[in-house]
Automatic annotation (TrEMBL), chains A, B:
Species annotation: Solanum commersonii
UniProt cofactor note: Contains 1 topaquinone per subunit.
Pfam entry (one): Cu_amine_oxidN3
List of catalytic residues: D177, Y251
Similarity field: Belongs to the copper/topaquinone oxidase family.
Single GO term (MF): quinone binding
Lineage: Eukaryota, Viridiplantae, Streptophyta, Embryophyta, Tracheophyta
Segments forming domain Copper amine oxidase N3-terminal: 1-98
Transmembrane segments: none
Modification after translation: Topaquinone (TPQ) is generated by copper-dependent autoxidation of a specific tyrosyl residue.
Positions of post-translational 2',4',5'-topaquinone modification: Y251
The keyword RNA-binding appears for this protein: no
Superkingdom as given in the UniProt entry: Eukaryota
Name used for this protein in its record: Amine oxidase
Keywords assigned: Copper, Metal-binding, Oxidoreductase, TPQ
């Protein structure tokens, strides 16, 4: 991982480097309006493992905007050696127009008040919140209890989460992995009443906890089939959210863990902030004849197709340490005799990983994917795919191993993919009735669109862990 | 469709029918605790079309609960002719235990206050709502304008929805189809502050409109790459929801149309209420040796596997009447020469329905499925599947035709599937640059679980219509 000090030093390096100063002058730009950012270089098949920590630096032009990412200065390649903090390679290849500043601003002060602006709307709790925060880390809310920790790489770590039934309990641990920059390290201060609602508590400045009420219905029924009676019972949905925002350069990642009274845990990642764009000679779609793997989102501005994958390390101990992974398949059963006028039914065929099982129902927690159980589009032999081999499947199950903590490997900077979940799993270990870890990867293939310019509306994706024949009845009555 | 009068008369018919009274006595039950409900009979391959409107009546036992659906009286088959309002067939086959009343209640009065109960939480708007309701049907909110109508079968109909950009506009019409009972006819009165939040307006008693604020972030960015500046800009997400609840017997369907400031329309259906269960001899899973196509959700109570499919009729006129349907496929492109150290990239290949197109970007609205673009599990030749042939694909596109309004056909009661979307589409009409209708079907395969007893936590499913290169930039700055 890059430390914040290393990142700052890297970003300032080109500004006093003579060839770079000359490149800026040659483009007719003002040096004081230039800001630079370092990016990991990756690995593209070089045989020898690099012993140098290095980054590629990309510079942007401000001059009338604060949205630097929409104004990349193209044609210059700068490689910085981190440990020496020197420029190891500098090439000024060609001059490409810098996209214009016009329309890139997203700050209110420069914009006229939008007609969309609503009257103020607030979530209020006159009697205060219903959750408590013991010793700064342990949250209790209704029957839920869990521990919130903070990790420089993972960001929020939820552990020892349990919801008590008559006699059952369960534990959940989730890690969030953010390769080279660290989700924890990039956590940003949350703005009151905007990043989190009015009723939120901060825990330190980068994590907030609040009760969420969106006007949704947890369950309801209107009964009019009972003669002489009119029954209506509605229970509004109130849940508890633990939120963190990590800004990794241009992108802002919102991470929510939502605990529901029904025992469900919903995990959500929202993507917002600024696209990483390339400057380009194109000002209109008709000019583009070659494949650019991008959308022209504004004049001279290409937004490249790219992926975001998120892997959660779910160390579920449902009703004890020994767990199994059961896959439920829905299967059509054809009616072959005259036992029914129907021609088919469907049923649930449960399959316990590795060996068959005659379990009729699944007891425990069920993973419910959201809309984006995305699989990779890169070829298996492409270097980014080798390094991110863990994205090949959405679900992996491994026996718990203390050293297998990060799906992308302990060190990801310029990694060759030899320490990933995909490699560990080749050992094909026993996973039935073991202390197992469920790794769930989901994500988005992001095809940028004009509406993402100059700032992206939040694109969110989620999954749920839902109790399934775990409680003996609806736990919220 | 069955009228409310017909439904009430049907439900009362068995209670004065002597053979039924004797069946109740034989089971040791009290007649005054019995309540009955009529259900459509469907079609199971009979060659001749029935000219009779008929329903099957199922009776339930109250005696200590108001949750009749958890206490079916099994073993009795009653067929009622609607037009004559007489019992045409009555068979008492066998006696099965009635599931017990214990634990089936969902009303607060009988339950002790749950430890989950939160302090009060409210959405407040001190300056009142930001939307207006002209002539009782036209809603204006920010740049959005649309018309809300009410149909006995479809429920809410949103029409003439538009969001004004500089010069563009678009229209959306959506129908909601609810076969035999009518979503509109079954709409129930909404409970203030529970079915809809405190800031909602009712429009009549069965539709509510409110601004939704859940503490979510519409877009944000923290910028620290500009030397000497610290920038943070966060815009909270506030949307407008139009909601209706339809209770069809035991099930409660929540229908939300959510209009976002970003131009996105999110359509959500929530399923709650009471499962339809069967009484059974089983009290424990170990006793079940045969396939029962069900989960034993409580003693003597089987919850059958079943499906819910919802079809939306989306008559989108994006920037005019003539529209085309473009399918965007993400494709891997292998690098075959040495032009890049990479081995692959991915790109977007657009395909206009019927003929190829070289369009580089999609202009217009994009349909984003939620987690449940479910396909049917029944065999094609099974009668329910023939009648519901429109569920075979999630997406259908037809040229607009005034008579093609209901995906399941104008008359669905005992229909033979000869007037459905699947049949109309066999004509394979031209759809390029036409006034087209997009039919989107989504749903859930519901495998009941213990947590659905005695009342189901809301299971929701959704899709979005998202502007994609339609506006020239993020419309909410």
């Amino acid at each position: 991982m890059l430390t914040l000090q290393e990142q700052t030093a890297t970003d300032e390096l080109p500004l006093s480097y003579l060839p770079f100063i000359s490149s800026i002058k040659k483009r007719g730009l003002k040096l004081k309006e230039v800001a630079c950012q370092g990016y990991p270089v990756g690995w593209y098949g070089e045989k020898r493992k690099s012993t140098n920590r290095m980054v590629k630096v990309i510079c942007y032009y401000l001059d009338g905007t604060i949205n630097l990412y929409m104004r990349p200065i193209e044609g210059i390649t700068i490689i910085v050696l981190i440990d020496q903090m020197t420029i190891a390679s500098y090439i000024d290849r060609l001059i490409v127009p810098v996209p214009k500043a016009n329309g890139t601003d997203y700050m209110g002060s420069k914009l006229q008040r939008s007609s969309h602006e609503s009257n103020s709307i607030k979530i209020v709790q006159p009697d205060g919140p219903s959750f408590t925060l013991d010793d700064g880390n342990t949250v209790r809310w209704g029957d839920w209890k869990f521990h919130v920790a903070y990790d420089m790489r993972a960001g929020i770590i939820i552990s020892l989460a349990s919801m008590f039934d008559a006699e059952k309990e369960n534990f959940v641990v989730a890690y969030f992995d953010a390769g080279e920059f660290g989700f924890g390290l990039c956590a940003v201060e949350l703005e009151p009443s905007k990043d989190c609602p009015e009723n939120a508590k901060k825990m330190p400045n980068v994590i907030c906890i609040f009760e969420r009420y969106a006007g949704d219905i947890m369950w309801r029924h209107t009964e009019d089939a009972i003669p002489g009676k009119k029954i209506r019972k509605v229970r509004p949905e109130v849940s508890l959210v633990v939120r963190m925002v990590s800004t990794v350069g241009n992108y802002d990642y919102i991470t929510d863990y939502e605990f529901k009274q029904s025992g469900t845990i919903k995990v959500m990642v929202g993507l917002t902030g600024l696209l990483e764009v390339r400057g380009s000679i194109y000002t209109h779609n008709d000019q583009i004849k070659a494949e650019v793997y991008s959308t022209l989102i504004a004049e001279n501005t290409l937004g490249a197709y790219h992926d975001h994958f998120f892997t959660y390390h779910l160390d579920l101990d449902v009703d004890g340490h020994e767990n199994s992974f059961v896959k439920n398949n829905l299967k059509t059963r054809r009616v072959i005799n005259k036992s029914s006028p129907r021609k088919s039914y469907w049923t649930v065929v449960s399959e316990t990983a590795e060996t068959e099982s005659d379990a009729k129902i699944q007891l425990g927690y069920c993973l419910i994917p959201g809309g984006s159980a995305t699989s990779p589009l890169l070829s298996d032999n492409d270097y980014p795919q080798i390094r991110g081999g863990f994205t090949k499947y959405n679900v992996w199950v491994t026996p718990y191993n203390k050293s297998e903590k990060w799906a992308g490997g302990l060190y990801t900077d310029q990694s060759h993919g030899d320490d990933t979940l995909a490699i560990w799993s080749l050992r094909d270990r026993e996973i039935k009735n073991k202390d197992i870890v469920l790794w769930y990867t989901f994500g988005v293939h992001h095809v940028p669109k004009q509406e993402d310019f100059p700032i992206m509306p939040t694109l969110s994706t989620s999954f749920e862990l839902k109790p399934t024949n775990f409680f003996q009845h609806n736990p919220v009555l």
